[in-house]
Amino acid sequence: MKCVFMCVILVIVVMMGGSTWAQDTCSSSLSSLNVCTPFVVPGSTGNPSSDCCGALQSVSHDCLCSTLRIASRIPAQCNLPPFACRMLI
């Protein structure tokens, strides 16, 4: 459930971004990842759709890493403990 919360936080971070061209481009790219939602919720099965894979491919590495870095700081700024999600591979 915490990982789903982090996905929601990522969307919020994107929506709250500034108005520079790079931020707008990053926000737009991340918004396109909505097609991946069925594959990131707990209990999902199967492989991502080609639409999801295409959307993920269109997001730059810098955009994705910056967004994750920003999202990881939000709990501390809200006086919450850091999230620790275990990776299920």
From TrEMBL:
Cleaved signal peptide residues: 1-22
Pfam families (UniProt xref): LTP_2
InterPro entries attached to this UniProt entry: Bifun_inhib/LTP/seed_sf, Bifunc_inhib/LTP/seed_store
Annotated ranges, domain Bifunctional inhibitor/plant lipid transfer protein/seed storage helical: 26-85
Transmembrane residue ranges: none
GO cellular component, one term: extracellular region
Record keywords: Secreted, Signal
Localization per Swiss-Prot or TrEMBL: Secreted
Family statement: Belongs to the A9/FIL1 family.
Protein name: Guanine nucleotide-binding protein alpha-3 subunit
Organism: Salvia divinorum
Phylogenetic classification of the source organism: Eukaryota, Viridiplantae, Streptophyta, Embryophyta, Tracheophyta
Gene: FIL1
